[in-house]
Write a structure and sequence with these properties.
Elements lengths: L2 H8 L3 H52 L1
Protein name: Holin
Organism: Sphingobium lactosutens DS20
Keywords: Membrane, Transmembrane, Transmembrane helix
Length: 66
């Protein structure tokens, strides 16, 4: 948060500072959620790749048994 932002809300006293804190907290939580979501997407891609490899292996074993 920039000093100008804090100063702008600080002019309204404690209520303004409380609002500034809430805005900062929401922005921080949103940034953290975005990072978690990005990591989750990567993990899902790796999981899908592993499951695909497992499916191919099982199908190959089934064809060898017949």
């Amino acid at each position: 948060m920039s000093p100008e932002f804090i100063t702008a809300f600080g002019q309204f006293g404690p209520l303004g500072l409380m609002i500034a804190y809430l805005v900062w907290r929401e922005k921080t939580v949103a940034d953290q959620r975005t990072q978690i979501d990005e990591k989750r997407v990567e993990a899902d891609k790796v999981l899908a790749s592993a499951l695909t490899a497992l499916t191919v292996t099982v199908q190959d074993l089934k064809s060898q048994i017949k």
